[in-house]
Give the backbone structure.
Amino acid sequence: MDLRNLGGLEETRDKQFFELRKCENAFFKIERTQGDIIMRYIGSKVSVIEDLYKLISGRVPKGFFCDPFGGVGTIGSYFKSKNFKVYSGDFLTFANFFQIARITQDGPPKFSVLCDAMKIKNHGEAINILNNLEGKDGWFTKNYAYKRKFFTLQNGKKIEACLQAIKIWRERRWLSYEENAILIASLINSMDKVANTAGTYYAYLKKWYRKATRPFNFKLIPYTPGNPYCRCFLCDAIDLVKRYKFDIIYLDPPYNERSYADYYHLPETVALSETPNVQGKSGIPHVKRTKSAFNRRDKALSALSNILNIARFRLLVFHYSDDGIIRPDELRNLFHEFGTVDEYLIDSVGYTNKSESRTIKHRLYLVES
Ligand SMILES: C[S@@+](CC[C@H](N)C(=O)[O-])C[C@H]1O[C@@H](n2cnc3c(N)ncnc32)[C@H](O)[C@@H]1O
């Protein structure tokens, strides 16, 4: 077994993608695409992406890359920029919308029908319209500005107005599926920058956080230049893995019981364009959304085994924490059935709500068939 430590948080090397930002006493590696910041996401591998890239491209330098637990498209867009053909997935709609914005698109959205209907020239003018809307009241402000302090009233009203405008455009069929996805992902990303939260939508902060008092500004998530044959799928990981034979399959599932559908309930509700009854301090919808098998102690190992049994690959990379639901010895036993296994450890500054940084040990299992 090859056990190597690839080192800790490094100096920013790729200015286009990252910057180090001081937050209270801790440094975070913030993801940027062409100068714009992407929302922080639990379990994001942004801080180790360059090490990951070196490790993977050292074995398979190009080809067909599958990221079925793709989240908001961090790994997928990076590998796209390095010219891999990326097929990315997630079972959450808002995550799929981020992936469409960042990975499927190869240029700014044209908004052809919208432009004709509104007598405007291009996407820039569409964004200006959204930014100049008068604030409105509705389901969003009632639940997340008046009743719960997720947003200041002024910002909540602006977000509500954008939501209502995009909904009308969609209902009038002025937006394609992808154009709607890009606008909604951009709205979620923009609203996240003024959310009075410590990162997730599980709770809002008691006092107004500085970022929450800044004025809301709608910004389009930029596309990532790179391989033009990339696609994104809204589906369970196994349904993407079973469809194709890949050069590389990168598996980065949840490793604990924290459900993404709960922690990001508001982005998901916005993406689904629903207005459900909500409850509790977090304003989570009454009806529970599906929890991943990877969040469940009784199901995680068999869910992984099912994926491996159906997967066709040259290199499989499994990214997991040593504290995860599936134990390292269980993982080793499983992976040895499918090829030669190497293990790597990466330290990084972990995601934390506290003022002190926390080192997380990522373990990468590389399986070559
Ligand atoms: C650890 S996060 C991925 C983080 C991502 N690699 C990054 O660096 O930002 C895991 C993702 O898997 C998704 N997920 C969980 N179970 C899934 C399943 N069965 N099928 C597809 N996606 C799933 C979650 O919604 C979440 O976005």
Residues 232 and 301 are 25 Å apart (CA to CA).
